[in-house]
Write a structure and sequence with these properties.
318 residues; alpha+beta; OB fold (Dihydrolipoamide Acetyltransferase, E2P); Glutaredoxin; 6-stranded mixed β-sheet; 5-stranded antiparallel β-sheet; 18 strands; elongated
Length: 318
């Protein structure tokens, strides 16, 4: 048997690297406690009691990043809104990160793509440029619709169900737009199958469903250009062995060359989308505020707000 002193010495030697590793992690990531932080509120999920914040470096804890925080206090949660620039107390429990309290110190900057949608601020992204052919054989581009609010979707005419259902629902939405606003709102449907969807085919598809083609353009073009455009819009699309195209069912609202927000077909049916279109059509185009100071938050993404959940081909509802 080894002497007890030798055993203790051996354990100490073996434990030293482990202790250093643990201390190293603690030094790098910071320990439990409350840390002052600053950032931009990107999204608020009341149902899950979480907030997404694009925050600056938190000295002694973590670098700048966009991440979710728990918000245990209901009153604090209800005071948070997208587009707020906040200074907040961040509690690290050792397992989770929480927002304990906050103070609004500004609004997210115009220069980073933030725009007003009614009473809310939303982070927007540039509209992908295009030059395509419409159902009448005319060449059109994104610039032709820059003076109007646009509603964008993606369809193909041989779609076995979801696309016609979506188009029919949007026809009902188009007819519900107040007369005074109709000239300010234009619908754009991009083809996912341009080799089949010629201008004549698109016109027949649209007229059979009652679309008002004075205020709705069905667009097609060369396959490489259309596929590139679909990717730029972030629409998932996959042709299956039977020839059908599995794709994301999502609607985009555009104003002033910016993608303002994403919506689902349920939003079109419930009136949420009509309210958004009407609000944007009634609101003058925004201009950069004079002398506005830029936020120092990281601004890592210019994507539209992340709270919308898009369905996939085959799940649009009836």
């Amino acid at each position: 048997m080894k002497p007890a002193g030798l055993v203790s010495s051996a354990i100490a030697v073996l434990m030293a690297p482990i202790l250093l590793l643990v201390l190293g992690c603690s030094d790098e990531e910071g320990g439990p406690g409350v840390y002052p932080a600053r950032g931009i509120v990107e999204d608020v999920d009341v149902e899950r009691a979480q907030v997404l914040i694009d925050h600056e470096d938190v000295p002694g804890l973590m670098p700048a990043m966009t991440m979710n925080f728990a918000v245990p206090d209901e009153e604090v949660l209800n005071g948070l809104a997208t587009g707020q620039v906040i200074e907040f107390d961040m509690r690290f429990t050792g397992r989770s990160y929480e927002v304990e309290s906050f103070e609004v110190v500004g609004e997210a900057p115009f220069e980073e793509g933030w725009r007003r949608l009614g009473d809310a601020l939303v982070r927007t992204s540039p509209v992908p440029a295009f030059e395509l052919t419409d159902q009448a054989g005319r060449r059109v581009s994104d610039a032709d619709f820059a003076d109007r609010v646009a509603l964008v979707d993606f369809v193909y005419t041989e779609c076995p169900g979801p696309c016609p259902i979506q188009t029919t629902s949007l026809v009902a939405l188009q007819r519900s737009i107040p007369e005074a606003l109709r000239e300010r709102i234009h619908f754009l449907s991009f083809s996912l199958d341009p080799e089949v969807d010629t201008p004549d085919v698109l016109r027949r598809y649209a007229t059979e469903r009652g679309a008002d083609l004075d205020r709705w353009s069905f667009l097609t073009g060369e396959r490489p250009a259309m596929e590139a455009l679909v990717r730029k819009w972030g629409v998932g699309s996959l042709r299956k062995p039977d020839g059908t195209i599995d794709h994301t069912l999502i609607l985009f609202v555009v104003k002033g060359g910016r993608v303002m927000e994403r919506y689902t077909l349920e939003d079109a049916r419930s009136g949420v989308l009509l309210d958004a279109l009407s609000t944007l059509a009634e609101t003058p185009a925004e201009a950069p505020p004079s002398g506005a100071a830029k936020s120092t938050a990281t601004g890592t993404s210019a994507a539209p707000a992340a709270g919308t959940h898009a369905g996939h081909h085959g799940t649009p509802g009836s």
